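Lecture notes, unit on protein representations.

Consider one protein chain, 196 amino acids long.
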Amino acid sequence: MTQAPAIDRTLQLLAISGSLRAASSNTAVLQALLAVAPANVTISLYEQLAELPYFNPDLDREGDTPPASVRELRERIGRADGVLICSPEYAHGVPGVLKNALDWLVSSLEFPGKPVALINISPRSTYVLASLSETLKTMSASLISDPSFTIPLPPNRRDVAAMLSDAQITDALQAAIAAFVRAIVSSRSEPSSRSS
């Protein structure tokens, strides 16, 4: 079992699924991550993706107050130490609801430099990963890459209960959290190590 590194306070991670399906395996894997997170890591699931209005720059001009759901998303991003995204691939691309949420974050002050991990549950979903990576880099996210973020799920292990009953999958989930926490902790120590 992979242990997350010791940290001096609880890390707050925000998990975003790119699917609105009630039985989404992408949402389920994020819920499973929440269930196996160590005591020093709190993962909260963002469940308001469908409530965001269509992105419209006219609603997000300098000095304007953005819609309440957009303001809440930005505040939650701001409070998070890192963001986990797990998304299906639709027609070789990013689901519209997820891209819409990212569009609302483009001009936000909370997102640049934010550590982001893309959790992939299907090795065949290469287009969505490439597209999301490009978008997130353009948005100045601190995109963290690690082999442990790919967690292939067999067809009979696509719900939370099945994942949590499988030791191999729970080990993989814990390894993904540990890798992300290590990357966040490491990124925070870099400026101080350079200045010493």
